[in-house]
C-alpha cells in the first residue's frame, strides 16, 4: 500500500500539471510532469523527503530528454535515463542572471498542505526550470554545458555517460574521446565499451 507521503506527492504532481497548463501531463508511475517540444521532453520530477511525520520537504528536479539521444540508448540497450541534462531546484542560486527570488523548496504538513502549493510550485518551475529548458533546447548546448561542468547543470566527469550519449547523437564521438582524457580508468573503459557497442549496432542497422 502506498504511503501517505507517496499519495500526497502523486496528487501534487497531478495538480502541478494542471497548474502549468496546456501541453503538460502527469505520469503517475514516475510522478513525473512532462511536456514535449521539437524532439526534447521537458521533465519535472517532484522530490519529497520525509522530515518527520507528517511533514515532508518538497523540491523538484528538472531536465531535458532528447529523442535523438534516447534512440542511441535503445541501440546500446540497458537502462534509459530520465533526462540527459538535469538540475535541482535548490541549486538555482548558482544560475547566472536568474531573476527568480521565490521559494524553491517547501516544508509541508501533508495533513494540512497549503492550498496555494501547486501554484507556488508552478511559479518556481516557470522561474527556474523554464529558463533552463530554453538554455538547453538543443543537444549541442547541453553537450557543451556537461563538458564544461556548467553550474546550470549537473556536469563534469561524473556525468560522462550522458555526455557520451549526446556526442553519439550529434555524430561527434571525437569530441567525447578528447574530453574523456581526464576520466578515471574504470569510467574510460566503460565508455570505450559503449562506443564499440554503438559502432557494431550501427553496422548491423546499415
Q: How does the SSE layout of this entry go?
A:
Elements: H1 4-20, E1 25-27, E2 32-37, E3 40-52, E4 55-66, H2 67-76, E5 85-88, E6 106-109, H3 117-135, H4 139-148, H5 160-169, H6 173-179, H7 185-205
Antiparallel strand pairs: 1-2, 2-3, 3-4, 4-5, 4-6
Question: Can you characterise this structure?
Answer:
The chain has 206 residues and is α+β, with helices and mostly antiparallel strands. It has helices spanning 4-20, 67-76, 117-135, 139-148, 160-169, 173-179, 185-205, and strands at 25-27, 32-37, 40-52, 55-66, 85-88, 106-109. Strands 1, 2, 3, 4, 5 and 6 form a 6-stranded antiparallel sheet that branches. It has one domain (4-205). The radius of gyration is 19 Å and the shape is elongated. The longest helix has 21 residues, at 185-205. 46% of the residues lie in helices and 20% in strands. Helix 2 crosses helix 5 (160-169), helix 5 runs antiparallel to helix 6 and helix 5 packs parallel to helix 7. 33% of the residues are buried. The chain is built from 7 helices and 6 strands, in the order H-E-E-E-E-H-E-E-H-H-H-H-H. A hairpin with a 2-residue loop joins strand 3 and strand 4 (55-66).
Give a summary of the structure in a few sentences.
The protein is an alpha+beta fold and 206 residues long. The protein is 46% helix and 20% strand. It is elongated.
Number of helices: 7
Number of domains: 1
**Major sheet attributes:** 6 strands, antiparallel
First-residue to last-residue Cα separation: 48 Å
Average pLDDT, all residues: 91
Could you say which overall geometry the principal axes of the C-alpha atoms support? elongated
As a percent range, the share of helical residues equals: 40-55%
Helix-strand pattern, N to C? HEEEEHEEHHHHH
Structural class: alpha+beta
Return residue spans where pLDDT drops below 50 for at least 5 consecutive residues: none
The Cα radius of gyration reads 19 Å
Amino acid at each position: 500500500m502506498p504511503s501517505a507521503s507517496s499519495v500526497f506527492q502523486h496528487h501534487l504532481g497531478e495538480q502541478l500539471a494542471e497548474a502549468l497548463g496546456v501541453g503538460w501531463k502527469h505520469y503517475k508511475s514516475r510522478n513525473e510532469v512532462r511536456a514535449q517540444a521539437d524532439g526534447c521532453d521537458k521533465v519535472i520530477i517532484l522530490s519529497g523527503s520525509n522530515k518527520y511525520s507528517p511533514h515532508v520537504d518538497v523540491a523538484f528536479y528538472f531536465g531535458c530528454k532528447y529523442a535523438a539521444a534516447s534512440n542511441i540508448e535503445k541501440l546500446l540497450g540497458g537502462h534509459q535515463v530520465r533526462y540527459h541534462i538535469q538540475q535541482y531546484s535548490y541549486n538555482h542560486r548558482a544560475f547566472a542572471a536568474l531573476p527568480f527570488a521565490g521559494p524553491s523548496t517547501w516544508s509541508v504538513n501533508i495533513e494540512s498542505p497549503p492550498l496555494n502549493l501547486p501554484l507556488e510550485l508552478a511559479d518556481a518551475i516557470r522561474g527556474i526550470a523554464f529558463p533552463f529548458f530554453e538554455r538547453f533546447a538543443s543537444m549541442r548546448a547541453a553537450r557543451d554545458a556537461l563538458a564544461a561542468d556548467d553550474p546550470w547543470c549537473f556536469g563534469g566527469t561524473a556525468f560522462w555517460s550522458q555526455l557520451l550519449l549526446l556526442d553519439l547523437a550529434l555524430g561527434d564521438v571525437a569530441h567525447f574521446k578528447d574530453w574523456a582524457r581526464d576520466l578515471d580508468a574504470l569510467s574510460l573503459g566503460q565508455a570505450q565499451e559503449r562506443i564499440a557497442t554503438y559502432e557494431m549496432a550501427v553496422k548491423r542497422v546499415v
